[in-house]
Specification:
single chain; alpha/beta; TIM Barrel; 2 domains; eight-stranded parallel sheet; globular; disordered N terminus; binds 2-acetamido-2-deoxy-beta-D-glucopyranose; hydrolase; Glycosyl_hydrolase_5; Glycoside hydrolase family 5 protein
């Protein structure tokens, strides 16, 4: 990276040590709003069939993803999904999350929620999700719950044969210049909305990419994407008049009468402050932003509805990446992309294997001596939160064990920046069986595995017998 893009790098390094970002709680106690705006049929199998979806062993072979549904049923897809969005997450759920004492949610989103980004000749997704996001964020803000917007399902598909990728396919095309570019436009729009739309006022962080492929040799260009992601967020903030440490805002933005006019001048205003790709992203985002604010009814005129005043009171969003140790084979370190507040996310799923032997003793020994936070911190990936976890195991777990398993994980993740459970809810139906027992936070609360106060434990000493005293001393 040419130093020309970082005029005050030395200053940045000094001024940002220890800064987490005012918007995020100092310890996160949260849940994911999974299967709301990125629907994974396995979490609501009966509703999916009722909607008109299908069930199959290999999800690429039937209607088992949003893409397959929209492709097969173009005439009803928007209406059917709208019904899902209104019922899967509504005021009742916000009230439950609030009553559970949680302070944050992570909201998985698809690129298609920014509708002009979808190439409708080859890509199929429902429309209208952005209005539901605006509705849900307003309800969360009213409840005082902080939001992490998570780019979960990326343009071109970022993970093979996964419902969470939006389309089940082995044709993974995200790690290409064209799709990185689209993801950056998405980032520019979400950053803008987070700052200018009052409904988005509780958005504190944006996560760049959920669970990229672990083998870094299969994610070429991801390191450059990380740097461009942070620059896009900070460039938009400068454009909006939000203070970015180490950068002086170009004067032209201060005289713009509205947000879209500011975007139209980015090419000349930013000069060489940011990479050419970042400047191109802002240019290409301009007409898309125009469409999206029209769809949402968001005010863009600085002199109206106290927009200037509200922007002056906003602080930088916290840029968020999966931690460097999520990948292997010489991954790029997202810490190298940092400008302003940044946090890191790790997901630990023992149920998928490869973490610990499949028994109680091994699980508790592993989690009670978790080295991930220290290993990440050694690579400047700090603060670290655990953005997805749950109670599923590779063996038949007793109720007694699940209580210990919940306590031990909460103790481990609480030593970092906190945690967000996967998921806030799971369908309860004959077809879903007892899936909710280990995957649903609300069900875990009801059964007493989780505590009514998320900062508490059933047994705060659960780890004592398992801690390696050699390490702990
Ligand atoms: C939320 O949706 C559920 C159906 O899943 C419904 O029973 C409930 O009444 C809805 N709550 C509100 C406040 O609309
Ligand atoms: C934004 O400002 C530009 C330039 O002054 C103007 O042409 C445009 O109509 C304005 N848009 C809105 C929505 O006010
Ligand atoms: C405890 O940790 C030390 C140092 O890593 C290791 O050598 C030892 O085998 C561990 N003991 C147990 C009981 O896990």
């Amino acid at each position: 990276m040419s130093p020309a893009y970082f005029p005050s790098l030395a200053l940045l390094t000094i001024s940002l040590v220890g800064l987490v970002g005012a918007g995020l709680p100092s310890t996160i106690y949260g849940v994911n709003l999974g299967s709301w705006l990125v629907l994974e049929p396995w979490m609501l199998p009966q509703e999916w069939l009722d909607m008109g979806g299908e069930q199959c062993n290999d999800c690429s072979t039937c209607i088992a993803s949003e893409f397959a549904f929209a492709q097969a049923k173009p005439d009803i897809v928007d209406e059917v999904f709208n019904q899902h969005w209104e019922t899967w997450f509504n005021q009742t759920d916000v009230d439950q999350i609030n009553a559970a004492g949680l302070n944050a949610v992570r909201v998985p989103l698809g690129y298609w929620i920014i509708e002009p980004l979808v190439d409708r000749t080859t890509e199929y997704y429902p429309r209208g999700g952005i209005l539901q996001l605006q509705r849900g964020l307003k309800q969360l803000a009213a409840a005082g719950i902080t939001v992490i917007l998570d780019h979960h399902a990326l343009p071109g598909v970022a993970s093979p044969n996964q419902m969470f990728a939006g389309r089940c396919t082995t044709d993974v095309e995200f790690y290409t210049p064209h799709n990185y570019h689209r993801a950056l436009i998405w980032t520019a729009i979400m950053t803008t909305l987070s700052h200018i739309d009052p409904a988005f006022s509780s958005v504190a962080a944006i996560e760049a990419v959920n669970e990229p492929i672990m083998d870094a040799s299969q994610t070429p260009g991801y390191g450059d994407f990380q740097k461009n992601f942070v620059q896009v967020v900070r460039a938009v903030e400068l454009l909006l008049g939000i203070h970015v440490p180490g950068y002086a805002a170009p004067a032209s933005f201060a005289v713009a009468s509205n947000v879209t006019a500011g975007f139209q001048t980015t090419a000349t205003s930013f000069g060489n402050m940011f990479t050419p790709e970042v400047v191109q992203v802002l240019k290409d985002a301009t007409p898309i932003l125009f469409e999206v604010v029209k769809q949402l009814g968001t005010n863009v005129v600085y002199s109206q509805a106290d927009l200037r005043g509200r922007l002056r009171r906003r602080s930088s969003l916290v840029t968020t990446f999966m931690d460097v140790n999520w990948q292997y084979n010489n991954p790029a370190n997202p810490a190298a992309a940092k400008i302003g507040p940044q946090v890191y996310d790790n997901h630990l799923y023992y149920v998928f294997g490869g973490v610990a032997a499949a028994n109680e003793e091994a699980y508790l020994t592993s989690i009670c001596n978790l080295g991930r936070i220290a290993a990440d911190a050694a690579l400047q990936n700090s603060p670290l939160f655990f953005g997805e976890w749950g109670l599923p195991t590779q063996f038949e777990a007793t109720d007694e064990f699940l209580q210990k398993w919940a306590d031990a994980q909460k103790i481990a993740y609480g030593k970092g920046a906190g945690w967000l459970y996967w998921n806030f809810k799971i369908e309860k139906s004959a077809l879903a069986g007892d899936l909710a027992r280990e995957w649903s936070y609300m069900e875990g609360l009801k059964r007493g595995y989780l505590t009514l106060d998320p900062t508490a434990f059933n047994d705060p000493h659960v780890c004592d017998p398992y801690i390696n005293t050699t390490l702990a001393s």
